[in-house]
Amino acid sequence: MSGPRPRAIDRVVTADDQGAYAAALAGLPGMGPATLRSILSQFSPRQAWAEVCRGRIVRPAAKGEDRPARPARPGDSLHADPGSAGSAFAGAGFAGAGGGGAGVGGAGVAGLGGGGLGAAQVGNEVSGWEGRAGGRGPGAERSRPPRPWVQISRQVDPCEWWAPHARRGCRVTWWQGPDFPGRLVDDPSPPGVLFWRGSIEFLDRTCVAVVGTRNATPEGRASAYRLGQDLAAAGICVVSGLALGIDGAAHAGALAALAQGAPATTVGVAASGPDIVYPRRHASLWADVTRHGAVISENPPGRPAQAWRFPTRNRLIAGLVSLVVIVESRLRGGSLHTAEAALERGVEVRVVPGSVHSPASEGTNQLLYDGAGPVRDARDVLDALGMFQSVPPSCPPRGPGKEGRRVSGGAGPTASGSAGGAVPAIPADDLQCRRVLEAVGTTPVTTEQILIRTGLDAAAAARCLDRLVEAGRLDQRQGWWMRPPR
Amino acid sequence: MLAMVASATLVGVQGQAISVEVHVSTGLPSFSIVGLPDASCRESRDRVRAAILSSGLRWPQKRITVNLAPTGVRKSGAGLDLPVAVALLVADEQLPAQSVEDLAFVGELGLDGSLRAVPGTLALVHAVGARAIVLPPAAAREAALVPGLALRSAATLGELELCLRGRRQWCLPPPPPADGGPGPMPDLAEVRGQPLGRLAVEVAAAGGHHLLMVGPPGSGKTMLAERLPGVMPPLDPAAALEVTRIHSAAGLPLPPGALIRCPPFRAPHHSASPVSLIGGGGPQMRPGELSCAHHGVLFLDELGEFPTAVLDTLRQPLEEGQVLVCRARASVLFPARVVLVAAMNPCPCGAERGPGSCRCRPSALARYAARVSGPLLDRFDLRILVQRPDVSDLLAGPGGPGEPTAVVAARVTRARALAEQRGVAVNAAIAAAQLDAVAPLEAAATRLLETRLRQGQLSGRGLHRVRRVARTVADLSGWSGSVGLDHVRTALVLRAPLFGADGASWESDEHGYGL
What we know:
Chain A is of the alpha/beta class. Chain A has helices spanning 15-26, 33-40, 45-53, 102-110, 119-134, 149-155, 158-167, 182-185, 218-233, 246-259, 283-292, 309-320, 335-344, 362-370, 378-384, 431-440, 447-454, 458-470; strands spanning 170-174, 193-198, 207-211, 237-240, 265-269, 294-297, 323-326, 348-351, 373-374, 475-477, 480-482. Chain B is elongated, with a radius of gyration of 28 Å.
């Protein structure tokens, strides 16, 4: 372990305590990754906290989240003067600050008696606390200057604040601390403090990020699902962002591989605290990812997701993995941030090509044009990683045998319609069915378009559609007909 | 002296017979109206006084009390002006009492003494319990629709007084206009390249099924909806009279012949309030758009923009075909048997070309889909996606105009005749218990529906609805035997799983992760 050089004050402090101090530092309002890193490069967490208590490390003056904190100088204590920073208690809170998030932040302070409460409880406590502070309504929060760190730090005992979070399975480490992911140590902008729930050691394996748009097409979701499943089956840790759409499908795929007995894992990188589920619809996915892998975040527990944290989260994803696969992205999609961050770090970016007509693939196709390599399935990813041996049997073989590619087992989430029972085949001489299948093509079409393209009447078209669905050759989603993704 | 004259007032779409009693006695000159008059009714004092004076008659400088019986019913509107004036003249002995015996009066008075028509004439005429009725000339044609009632009309109060004294002939009621049939309607032949939309309109017309069209702006949803009334068979005499009565009560303009013969088409804007759709409001209880579309089409364009609360008020009336509007003072039953046609965009940006293909955020999509509640979505027997036809598809497809309305309407009439032979008005109204008798399924069709039920692609209620639509599809093809596999398949194609209806959405994947 390459911790900071032990100093006199550290000798009585355990590593767990150091974690608590690191967590408390990360929870200070206005503490950004760069500030935190700059502080932790000079002090151990315990020492840094002591410096904050003494008023020698103060909050960077402006809203600059990324401005490094100046090392403490004698005159600095003036800046910590409550008078100069606004009214005494009128601060955004602890841990939830940085923009309207005072709700949870206050918990740290108010929670001197009960840190680690549920978000709702915390909110109540905070409002009580702020009521005492001068009866300002919640609307006044934004305009209120944050409380100086020195005030917060004198009220908070980091170990006491952290203990309930630790009991609920939250873990923490800091730059150069124990368990800090090796890949992030040399990152150009590593997180100062890293929180997680679950088992972070999976990050020591080969990690691949599978990310993409939230508003994904069924094909995109199926690609992500299959990639997640096959990569996890090959022993790769699938890293993604736990978002709707592609991210969720990739995690779900990796978890499905686990259900099939593969030593698979998946790690979700969250933009909120590791205990704040976002989006809510993914509550059970979060729970399963936490159980079988880890949810990591550089935000302390209780901090809600905020828009500006997502690009920051994306850089963390890029920093954790050996390869980034983008399944679908729009022209201004957040996944392109991930691609950019990956390129800064020399991490290879590959994309799943999409139709030139699909807006969901505009961003990925642009990356393809710009020179990113294409990925058809997990085999291509494993080839790119040089892992030729570990291609899982479920991965379709390459070669001329086209029919052989239709893998029946472990179908993706879209193939539910045809699952179970004998699948009736379409007779070769059923010309109407063939016409309908041709009319569907590769992009989703409406029933009306099928009628127009085939010239069939509704009854005949309905008969063909019904047969094709039975045979698993067509799917209907939200009224649109499409070929089920391979 | 006392005088009593028969009249009627409007409550909802029904008339209520009213007896107007006027008492003129010595005392300080005054005029008071009792018996629950509303504001418009109370104002009649000033109109009656001016009309009597302008007609060269005398206004008695006495104590005048007007009572509107039964006193428990709220009276509204200016239709009681004329009976009040006539009763006053009788009470003041300017008119002999015998002259108004067995006559009812309905009409509004102008300050110059002219007689004006009031809304709801048809219902009022229905309600009065008299041998003959005196009406403004403008209302005579409408009143003539009620058989077995002698009509009298006069243009002004002065003229009326002369007629009642027998010094002048009553105005002759206008001759019934030549029945020109329904006026020009938009023709289905103008719809090109929309085979499924045309089929849906045909099935909706034949079976009275509610239709939801989802498609981007400019895909012809409104065009299709406007052509639905033309495809529907013309109203039978009873229905025509009922529709005319509702439109008259709502104060809507009537056709030249007064009788509405073609199914009405009502398209309220999405800023409509619940009361404007359902009916009610004020003592008069005006019929809402839903009732105005009775026996016709209620078209809700931009369904997603209607407030959810407004849409959900439609749910029960759509099921029952009528709506009971209850207020503290009155409960009114409005007829509301409509074919509901709704149109909406697939997503807020309106540019969807398949799942995941537009730029809307997932949360925005979910919000948009949630605007139409599941129960309402379930009431649409027909749900189709409409697209702007591709240029290439239009060029490649069969050229020329589609079938004209007349051809389709003939098929629809035939199909409706089959339904009537079975004893149901329209197939959409087949009771669930009757389905097995009226729309028995062939074995293969039963198997297909069982499969869909098992796969969760069809709900229990959806099953009944598909069976009704399949019955209509069979009727349209002239087949009145058991419902076959192809009919059920067509019905299923016409009921696309939109917005997560019938549990067939992406959101309910088997992993339970809510991907």
